[in-house]
Structures are given as C-alpha cells and as structure tokens.
Write a structure and sequence with these properties.
This protein has 225 residues and is mainly alpha-helical. The chain contains eleven helices and no strands.
Length: 225
Amino acid sequence: MSKRRASRREFLARAAVGAGAVAGAGLVAEAAPENQEPQTNTSAPASAEPRSDGQGHGAFLNHDDAATIAAFTERLMPSAPGKPGAREAGVLNYIDLALAGAYAELQDFYRRGLAQLDRYCRHAYGEPFVRLSPARQDEVIAALEAGKADGFAWPTAQAFFNTVRTHTMEGMFADPIYGGNKDFAGWRLVGFPGAQAIFTPADMQSTRAFTRAPMIGLQAQAKGR
C-alpha cells in the first residue's frame, strides 16, 4: 500500500473517531445544493423497498457500477494486515442500500458521476476505472480530489470525490444496521466498543481503552427481537 493510501486511510480513521464513530446515516444532507442538479427529480417511489442480493448490491446499483464503487472505496479505505478495509466492512452494501432509501435523491448524482468517471478513465488510460492498476486508480482519485479530472460537468470531480469519500466513512463506521461496518470492522479498527448492555463501576473509572466483547449494535438488537 502506498504512503499516500496509508495516510488517507489513517486520516479517515482518525476523522471517524473525531466524529463519534459516525452514529448513522443522513450525514450529507447539508451538502444537498452541491449534490443536486436543479429541476431534476430523481427520488425513488415512496413504495420502493431497498432490496439487496446479499452480495453487496442489487438495491440500486447495477453490476458494473457496483464493481466501480467497490474498487473506488477500497482505494479510499484499503485493507492492510490486521486492518479491514472497505470491502471487508461492506461499504458497497451500505452505499447501495442508502441510494435505494435515505439517499435516493442522490441516485442521478451517482449515475452521472460514475458515467463521467468511466469516460475520463477510458480517455486518459484506455480502460474503465475497475480495470486500472491500483496505482492508476490512485492517480484518478487524486485528480478527482484536486478537481483536475477532465470531462466532469455535474457533478464536478471534487463533488463526486467528496460525496463518495463521505459515504465510505459512513459505510465503515456507522451502526451495522445500515448495511456497512460488517462484523463491526470499522468500530474494531478505531477501538470503539459499540453499545454495551452494561458498564460496571470499574469500567467507568478505568483509564484504559475499553475492549470488552461482544459489541452490540442496532443490528444485533433487531435480530434479538
């Protein structure tokens, strides 16, 4: 893993800790003016129910778009020995379910962003993003982040990058009930124990990091009902 990828990975992990390990979805609502194109209605029907194929997509993303998102988010949050990345945490599943539900207004944003990303990669490298080497994928992401990727109108390259990065963080660190943070991978990564049934007086007074298992999230509580 390159030093740039490692530094980005550590930045995301530290940011999650500072944000309280991301309590849930709906964190980018304030960015709607940047993410929504005027006079475009992309909301899903009120009766639409998110459904996943159990493999990480199927609620909204098609196979090709899912593969691109999976590769993109893995470069943002790559795995390392003993440290789970976006794939292990199920970030793809989180984004797919969110776009079919809470983030339905961003469906067209993602469609157009992914289409522009595909055109940019084919023009610059002759291959779609998912077929590029990890080093080339990092170059593409860096160009998006810096706003230097050609061919982006709406969303802009930076807006697309910023939104996917935010959703990657959410998928890594939100409660597993939202489809990501599989097996508490993100919480384990940053040492967050999740909701516990009880904290003893000794737990409350201890100055050491709290590591007792098991961790209990909303997902586990729902299964127990």
